[in-house]
Design goal:
Blueprint: E1 16-26, H1 32-43, H2 53-79, H3 86-105, E2 110-119, H4 123-132, E3 135-142, H5 152-163, E4 171-174, H6 182-199, E5 204-210, H7 214-218, H8 223-238, E6 245-250, H9 263-272, E7 277-281, H10 290-306, E8 311-314, H11 322-334, H12 345-357
Parallel strand pairs: 1-2, 1-3, 3-4, 5-6, 5-7, 7-8
Length: 361
Amino acid sequence: MTYAIEPGYTHGTPEKTGILLVNLGTPDAPTAQAVRPYLKQFLGDPRVVEIPKVLWWLILNGIILNVRPKKSAAKYASVWLAEGSPLRVYTEKQAIMLQGYLAERTRAPFAVEFAMTYGNPSIPDALRRLKAQNCQRILVVPLFPQYAASSTAPVFDQVFAELQKMRNMPAIRTVKHFHDDAGYIKSLAANINEYWAKHGRPEKLVMSFHGVPQYTLDKGDPYHCECHKSGRLLAEALGLTREQYVVSFQSRFGRAEWIKPYTTATLLELGRQKTRRVDIVCPGFVGDCLETLEEIAMEGREDFQHAGGGEYHYIPCLNDRDDWMQALTDLVIDNLQGWLNLPDAADREKGRLLALAMGAK
C-alpha cells in the first residue's frame, strides 16, 4: 500500500488537539453544473440509499442525475446567500466561533476545522489541514443531533477511510449524537421562546425532523427514537402539553414508506382543520439549509395555507446563536477530557536536543 506523504515535522513542535465539525454538504454554486456532482456523491453513497448497487446505479445515472440537478439548482438559488450556501456559511461561522470560545476556556494548543460529508470542504482535506498543524489527536463532531446510519455514519466512514491512507495516524474520538444534551435542548427552547416573545404563540408547534425510510427503523437504526426524545425534552422545556405540538418527518424521497407522520401530510391536515396559526421548527438541523429555508419555510407554508390554514411561521435554526455556541463548546470540552493538556516546554526542548544529537534534522 502507498501511504500519503506525511507533513514536515520539527522536533520540539508542540502537539495540538484538532476539532473537526462536519455537516451534510452543499453544492459549490446554485447551478445544475455544480449540483450534479454533489448529488452524484451524496446519492451514490450506499449509506444514504440502501438499494442494490447495480439497480441504483442505473436509476441514479440514467434518470435522477439527468432530471434533478436543474430542479434542485432552482431551489438552491431561492435560498442562496451573498456569501454562499447557507449551510456552508453557518457551519463556517460555527467553526470560527468555536475556535474563539475554546480559546477563552483553555490555553492548551488546538485547531478547529469544518468539513462537509459531500461537497466542499471535504473531510479528507480538513483532516490533512489538521495534520499539517501537528494535530496528533482529533475529535470528530458530526453536527447531527440525532444519530442515523445515513447521516452520522458516513462521516465516520470517510474519517476512518482517510486514516487508512496515513502512515502516522492521529488518535481519534467521535461524538455519536447529542439529541438529549441539556445545552442543546436549552438553546432550542430559548430560540423558540425568544421568537414567541416577539411574534406571539401558535395554536400548534410542529417539530419537523429529516425523514428516513421505515425499514431503517425496523433494522435497528435509533434515529426515530432519538428524534422523539429530542421532541419530548424540547416540549417539556417549553412547557407544552401533548396536544400543543407534533413531531413529524420531512424530505421523503422515492416510493418506499418512510417514518411517519410526514411533515407535508401533517401541515395539510392542520390546514384542513382551519388551524389559526402553526409555527414550525427543525430541531434536527443546527444550521439553516435548503431543507429548512426552502422545503419547510416556503413549500410548507404553501401546503398549509392552500389547505385552509391561517398564519404560518418558520422559526430559524440555532445557526450562530451565542447560547448554542456555548452549548457546543461544552459538548466539545466534555469529549476532550484528558486531551487539553498544556505542553511542557522544558520536556519538548529536552526531546528536541536529544533528537538532534541522534542526527535528526
